[in-house]
Specification:
The complex is a heterodimer. By secondary structure, chain A is of the alpha/beta class. Helix content of chain A is about 65%, strand content about 10%. In chain A, a hairpin with a 2-residue loop joins strand 3 and strand 4. Classes of the chains: A alpha/beta, B alpha+beta.
Chain lengths: ~650, ~80
Amino acid sequence: MEGTADLTIALAGNPNVGKSSVFNRLTRSRADTANYPGKTVEVSAGVSEWRGRRVVVLDLPGTYSVLPASEDQRIARDVLVEGAPDAVIVVVDTTNLARNLYLVLSILDLGLPVVLAANLLDEAERKGLFLDAHRLAERLDVPVVPTVATKGQGLHDLVPAAARVAREGPLERPWYGEAIEAEVEAVAAALPEKAVQAGITRRGAALLLLEGDPGMAEAVRGSALESRAGRLAEPTARARHALAADIARECIRVAAAEPRLADRLWHWVTSPVLGLGILVAVLLSIFAFVYFVGGFLATAFTDAWSAFASPPIDAVLRAIAGDTVVARTLIWGLDAGIGAALAVGIPYVLTFYFVLAFLEDSGYLNAAAFLSDRTMHRFGLHGRAIIPIVAGLGCNVPAIMGTRVLATRRERLLASTLVTLVPCSARSAVIFGAVGFFLGLGPALAVFAVQLGVVVLAGVALNRVVPGRSTGLVMEVFPLRRPTLPDVFRKTWWRFEAYLRMALPIIVVGSLVLGALYETGTMWALANPLAPVVSLWLGLPTVAGLALLFAVLRKELALQLLVALAAIQYGAGASSLTFFMTPIQLVVFAIVATIYVPCVATVAALARELGWRAALGISAFTIALALAVGGLALRVLLL
Amino acid sequence: MPRKDRRSREADLATLPAGSRGRITGIAAGDDTRRELYSLGLLEGVEVRVVRRAPRGGAVLVAVGASQYALGHDVAAAIRVVPG
């Protein structure tokens, strides 16, 4: 009997099995992130509809088992163990069934109703592997739906199957042999009520404890069961892998397969010399692509905005508020603010995300992580950290969120700090606009080189100073795959939307504050207090100091602000920066602007990921570093 | 002639040359790392193959069954294997 309540389905699976493809096609509308009942965990959620019921699909981060090894895996575990979903659809890579079944068995162990989506069937066939779906369904006692998510095949059966198992509940559960089962039973009987989460069975909770789940260990702290935490980690893993392998052997038929181009490409891409060369080439291409395509879009967009959006907005605001401070302030926020945000945000951030999604889906980023692992070690990180750090070139905000793939807080702290030092599009725009435009490409590249040096030195120094534990690289690698463009576009759009949602409000508010300070003249009040630092230490004119100070609200407006303030101070000729700033001053300005606190949106992202103390600490660090390097640069250049 | 002691043939995944195979005899790492490796199928008695190594103390690519993993140098060094 179908109920009318919401059906909540969790979508789980190993990383890179096409889970996102399934998610995209299962959900029509996107409720971007959902605060899962009662928790502060945020999971990407989508909404669909089936037979009059609302279906909520939760896209969990990819995991190999229920026990978490990183922050985002912790999120997946919490949803499964504490979120009590009505059913779980586990998306499985049919080309590697034995390994993928480990997760399926782990989730069955929890006592949750499961549907298995046997995905990547086309890949499997290419590799000469053929799946007997009926057999698999029999052995596991769960519905098995063969799918090719990228082509949309088989997906329409998933939700109905999930609704069915949600109603019926789990039947067979895995069996791991006398010895293990006896101890599991004993622990299950002894568990206190409060330690058994609502959606899982006693046996499931007992297994979690015996395997060393940190959450369960915490829940039984101080009781007699404390000593049992993790006692059976190895035997259970062994038994589960053995069962998974056994089932896979029975259900997969292997025909001969030819060696593939993808494997050879992978070989080249990870080889010491050639691989490194390719890596450098790829990084430069990313930069060039974003610069040119982004630049083209930026000009196009700015022109369009000035022609079509600016005049009406100005006209409306002036009609409402006349030519008053209020009107001009609002124009700052709503016209200049949004316009500039979109002129930098859309072209550069969007372009960058496209490139990133493309590289991710191709599997190339794993090769990059493999090659860079040793270097990342110097910074107290490992190879996977290179992905958020490179992502910081587009925009720091999502890059900081991307540090969730790292295991310990220390690593997330170090990686986030390095991300803030990576020049995002806004700051690159300042470098090109101030130094590149007036002094040439050479000096601009030199400023980027200085920035690279700062990142490296800061990384090494922080690694020595920050206490805590870092882990080593443990990462699955895949042969290179041709990315599916629709999925790349979807991933790009989703990330860009998240960036806009976070950044746009702060951008508008920041612009309004900036506008208010500027239009009311209060900005100048800070000129004197800043003088010692700005004039004496950095050798910059007062207006530059003010521009820097307030650019924290809107980094990409640093140049516009500088010009606007200079026009007030020096007169009309100041639209060319060289009118009131020497080349050395331009360089110092660009360097300081690039190093210190990216922008308030970044601080907000840091606070969300690491807490306010860390966010403010990192901000203070970058400010001190900016002043130090800026002052040093001044003195070096004057020699 | 006394049979060679197994211990003297033991090596670790960080030192084995590319292309060699071995059977895992033990993992000398912290609880978290070990749990993670277990979930990927790296357990005592499992056969692994070293696919390639990044130069000078870098990461190691290891094949286990149908999967391949990149392991940091220190992680690989903690996995002891008997070659062959």
